Amino acid sequence: MGTNTYIVSRYSSDSSQADSAQAQDAQKAAALKNNEPDCVFVVDAGGHKIDVDKYCNLLKRCDGFVFTHGHFDHISALPYLHKLFPDAPIAIHKDDACYLGPDAADLHISDFSELGLMVYVRNFFSQEGELPAATLLLSEGDVLPFAPEWSVLHTPGHSPGSICLYNEDENTLISGDTLFADNGFGRTDLRGGNYAQLMKSLSRLEKLPVGTKLLPGHGESAYVQ
């Protein structure tokens, strides 16, 4: 469905950090000294097994899954990836947590029936099984525990629990379906969508510094101007 999946790696090259980590976690310290990422997490695991297999060689480890919202096209690879990395936390805003877990199938089927995709979604669940439940519920102002340089901006409108992930140091925003390149934005005619809320969320994002890199849920990347 043309969803962008982001594999985010964080590196620490500071030798003092490596020495400190060695006392706490030998494996993490070795990763630091070998210039390997000390954390890798996946944002919006869309697609299916055939799509995941194309980039799975990049996922030698996975320290977490984060979802900008719960719509089906952004979570469809989670059952497969969860089997590969069963201990990785599954993070989503608390207002969209209903889209994950064993009771979520009917919700997705209902949502996508309005788009003429009910059979497609139903076949997915019959083949892949149920979705795992969220294990980490996010709220406005939270930071990711496995990557604290990334903070949570609650930007409802496309869905009640839509979020963006913002890294101030790297001047980067992962915007999900809240904001696309060329000032496009997500639809508001699905369950829980709210145009007025989305306009408020977009007004908030307008205050980001010029030059902020925008990584949206669909389409090309861009820069805030």
Structure at a glance:
This protein is an alpha/beta fold and 225 residues long. It is built from eight helices and eleven strands. The two termini are 28 Å apart.
- Poorly predicted ranges: 13-24, 28-33
Largest sheet composition: 6 strands, mixed
**Strand order of the main beta sheet, please?**
6-7-8-9-10-11
Give the CA-CA distance, first to last residue. Answer: 28 Å
Arithmetic mean pLDDT: 85
Task: Specify the structural class.
Answer: alpha/beta
Number of strands: 11
Fraction in helix: 25-40%
Helix count from the secondary structure assignment: 8
Which radius of gyration do the C-alpha atoms yield?
A: 18 Å
- Report the β-strand fraction as a percent range: 15-25%
Topology as H/E string? EHHEHEHHEHHEEEEEHEE
Q: How would you describe the shape?
A: globular
List keywords for this structure.
225 residues; alpha/beta; six-stranded mixed beta sheet; five-stranded mixed beta sheet; 8 helices; 11 strands; 30% helix; globular
Explain this structure to me?
This protein is an alpha/beta fold. It is 30% helix and 20% strand. The model is unreliable at 13-24 and 28-33 (pLDDT under 50). β2, α3 (49-55) and β3 (64-66) form a beta-alpha-beta unit. The longest helix has 11 residues, at 118-128. The radius of gyration is 18 Å and the shape is globular. The strands form 2 sheets. The chain has a 6-stranded mixed β-sheet, with no helix packed on it. The chain has a 5-stranded mixed β-sheet with strand order 1-2-3-4-5, with no helix packed on it. α6 (105-113) packs antiparallel against α7. The protein has helices spanning 15-24, 26-33, 49-55, 72-75, 78-84, 105-113, 118-128, 195-205; strands at 6-10, 39-43, 64-66, 90-93, 136-138, 143-144, 147-154, 163-167, 172-176, 213-216, 222-223.
